[in-house]
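To: structure subgroup
Subject: Chain for Friday's discussion

All,

I'm putting the inputs and outputs inline so they're searchable in the archive.
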Amino acid sequence: MRCELCDAVGGELLRQDGLCRVVLVADAWYPGFCRVILNRHVKEMSDLDEDERSGLMRVVLAVEKGVREVLRPDKVNLASLGNMTPHIHWHVIPRFADDRHFPNSIWGEAQRDGVAHTTDAIAARLRQAIQVALPDV
């Protein structure tokens, strides 16, 4: 079985180490939408050892912090579903009260027309904010 997260980077690479990578998803409706993707194919968080779980969550929270600093969203959604792609990855999604789906999940029914945004300048700012939040890597 093919796995899109094993076969491709999955977005614009913001950071990578031996455990995981952080990518910026190209989604004009949700600027700053990032994924934290485990570098090996594992389906469940409970299959990781304690150090891997802690390390992965440290990165997820650093990305959340960076997203909050750079974009100042009304809320940040963290999600790890894996139903469509059973490979550990976390979604870090900045949410705004006027986005297409708010207050629903971005995978739910749209509530309004949204406004597409350019994400050109966001990547560099997020990369820097994540590096500040993870200075020892």
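Points worth raising on Friday:
The mean pLDDT is 91.
The longest strand covers residues 89-95.

D.
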